[in-house]
C-alpha cells in the first residue's frame, strides 16, 4: 500500500505544478503585460481559470494530507525548518485567491479594484517563487537539523543561491505553462500572437534561470549535474523535454494550438523527472549527509493502509466529477 500512497503523492505534486502552476502563471503573464493590454489579458485569463482555479488547490491539499498522515517525520521537518517560506507561500495563496474574487465580484467598482489587481499579480509571482524555493531547499542538503541558532536552523536552509535559483526557474516555468495554455483560449489572432511572444519570453527566462540553477548547484555542492546527466533516466528525460520543446514550437508555427498544452505539460513533467529520479525515494537531503526517505519515514502499517484505501476510493468519487468540470468549462459559449 505504501507504493499506492507514494504514487498519489507524486501525482498530486505533479498535477499541482501543472495545473496550479499555470494558474499562478496567468498572474505572472499579467504582471509582464503592458498597461494598455492588461484588461484584455485579464479577461482572457479570467475566462480560462475562473471556473476551475480553486479546484487546482485540491492537489496541494492532497499532498499535504499525505505527508502529514503517511510521512509525519518528513512533514515535521519541513514544517519546522522551512516554516518561513511555507508561511509566505500560504499567505500568497490566500492573498491571490482573495484578490481574484474581489476584483471580479466586488459589488462596488472603485479604486480598490487596482489594489486587488496588484495583490493578485504580485502574489502570483511570490507564491510560485517560494514554492520553488521550498522545492530547492528539500534537495539542496542545506537543511541543518543539528543547528543550534535561529539563522542556521530556520533561514540558511532555504535562503541560499540554489534555492532562490530554483524559485526563479519555477516562476519562469509557470509563466511558460500559462502562456501556452492561454494561446488556445484566445479567439483573436492578435491576442494569440501576444501570448506566443509571452511564451517565447518565458521560455528564454526558463533557460537563463535553469543555467543559474546548475551554476548555483556547482558552487554550493549540490550534485544536480550528477543527478541529471549521469543517470540514464535523468538524461533520457532531458532529451525528451528538449525534443518536446522543439516539436511544440514547430506545431505553434503550423497554427496547431490545442496539442501545445499536452506538450508543455509533458516537457515540465520530464524536467521534474530528470531532477528527482536519481535521489528517489529520498525526499529531503539534510546537511549532515543523511536523507529522509519515503520508505524509511513512513507511518505504521494500519495508518498507511487506511490512507491508501481512502485515496483509492476517493479518487473514484472525485476524479470523474473533476474531469467533467474541466470538460464543461472548456466548451466554448455559443
From TrEMBL:
It is a multi-pass membrane protein. Belongs to the cytochrome ubiquinol oxidase subunit 2 family. This is Cytochrome d ubiquinol oxidase subunit II. Coiled coil: none annotated. InterPro entries: Cyt-d_oxidase_su2. It is found in: Cell membrane. It comes from the Bacteria. The chain crosses the membrane at residues 6-32, 53-74, 80-99, 119-139, 159-181, 201-219, 231-252, 259-280, 306-327. The lineage of its organism: Bacteria, Pseudomonadati, Bacteroidota, Sphingobacteriia, Sphingobacteriales. Keywords: Cell membrane, Membrane, Transmembrane, Transmembrane helix. GO terms for molecular function: electron transfer activity; oxidoreductase activity, acting on diphenols and related substances as donors, oxygen as acceptor. The keyword Magnesium does not apply. GO terms for biological process: aerobic electron transport chain. One of its GO terms (cellular component) is cytochrome complex.
Amino acid at each position: 500500500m505504501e507504493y499506492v500512497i507514494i504514487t498519489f503523492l507524486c501525482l498530486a505534486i505533479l498535477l499541482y505544478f501543472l495545473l496550479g502552476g499555470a494558474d499562478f502563471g496567468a498572474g505572472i503573464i499579467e504582471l509582464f503585460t503592458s498597461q494598455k493590454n492588461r484588461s484584455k489579458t485579464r479577461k482572457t485569463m479570467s475566462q480560462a481559470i475562473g471556473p476551475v482555479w480553486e479546484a487546482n488547490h485540491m492537489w496541494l491539499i492532497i499532498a499535504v494530507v499525505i505527508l502529514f498522515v503517511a510521512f509525519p517525520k518528513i512533514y515535521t521537518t519541513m514544517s519546522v525548518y522551512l516554516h518561513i517560506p511555507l508561511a509566505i507561500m500560504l499567505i500568497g495563496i490566500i492573498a491571490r485567491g482573495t484578490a481574484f474574487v474581489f476584483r471580479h465580484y466586488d459589488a462596488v467598482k472603485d479604486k480598490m479594484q487596482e489594489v486587488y489587481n496588484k495583490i493578485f499579480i504580485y502574489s502570483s509571482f511570490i507564491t510560485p517563487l517560494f514554492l520553488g524555493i521550498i522545492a530547492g531547499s528539500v534537495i539542496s542538503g542545506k537543511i541543518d537539523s543539528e543547528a543550534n541558532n535561529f539563522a542556521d536552523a530556520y533561514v540558511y536552509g532555504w535562503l541560499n543561491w540554489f534555492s532562490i535559483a530554483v524559485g526563479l526557474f519555477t516562476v519562469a516555468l509557470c509563466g511558460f505553462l500559462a502562456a501556452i495554455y492561454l494561446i488556445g483560449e484566445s479567439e483573436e489572432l492578435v491576442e494569440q500572437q501576444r501570448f506566443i511572444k509571452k511564451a517565447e519570453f518565458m521560455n528564454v527566462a526558463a533557460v537563463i534561470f535553469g543555467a543559474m540553477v546548475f551554476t548555483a548547484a556547482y558552487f554550493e555542492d549540490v550534485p544536480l549535474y550528477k543527478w541529471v546527466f549521469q543517470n540514464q533516466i535523468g538524461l533520457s528525460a532531458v532529451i525528451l523535454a528538449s525534443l518536446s520543446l522543439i516539436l511544440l514550437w514547430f506545431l505553434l508555427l503550423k497554427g496547431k494550438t490545442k496539442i501545445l498544452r499536452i506538450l508543455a505539460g509533458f516537457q515540465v513533467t520530464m524536467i521534474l523527472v530528470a531532477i528527482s529520479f536519481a535521489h528517489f525515494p529520498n525526499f529531503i537531503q539534510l546537511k549532515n549527509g543523511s536523507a529522509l526517505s519515503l520508505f524509511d519515514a513512513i507511518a505504521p502499517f494500519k495508518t498507511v493502509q487506511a490512507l491508501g484505501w481512502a485515496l483509492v476510493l476517493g479518487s473514484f468519487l472525485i476524479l470523474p466529477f473533476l474531469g467533467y468540470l474541466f470538460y464543461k468549462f472548456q466548451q466554448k459559449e455559443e
